[in-house]
Fold this sequence. Notes:
Layout: E1 2-3, E2 12-13, H1 20-23, E3 28-29, H2 31-46, E4 52-53, H3 60-80, H4 87-90
Parallel strand pairs: 2-4
Antiparallel strand pairs: 1-3
Amino acid sequence: MVDANKYDPRILSLPREDMLPYTGERVLVRDTVARKLAAVNARLKEQGYGLKVLYGYRHPELQKAYFENCMTQIKKEWDDEGEIYTQDELK
């Protein structure tokens, strides 16, 4: 894992607050992803744009929490519509 802006420091690498305990002020990605981000950013810069990366690696605990929150929201929406779904159908 490397910094998202390893190959192009012009890429804004701004970690989300929920990742700070796991990675600090860094957005970590695979080396191959960092290379691809640099290539994309070079093309965007030609057009006056640039990348801002907020997430790369997500700690498994955080990913699990996001998944569970999403499941809760979907179930609530479906319940509000009067639909009843099993846990397997929700997944």
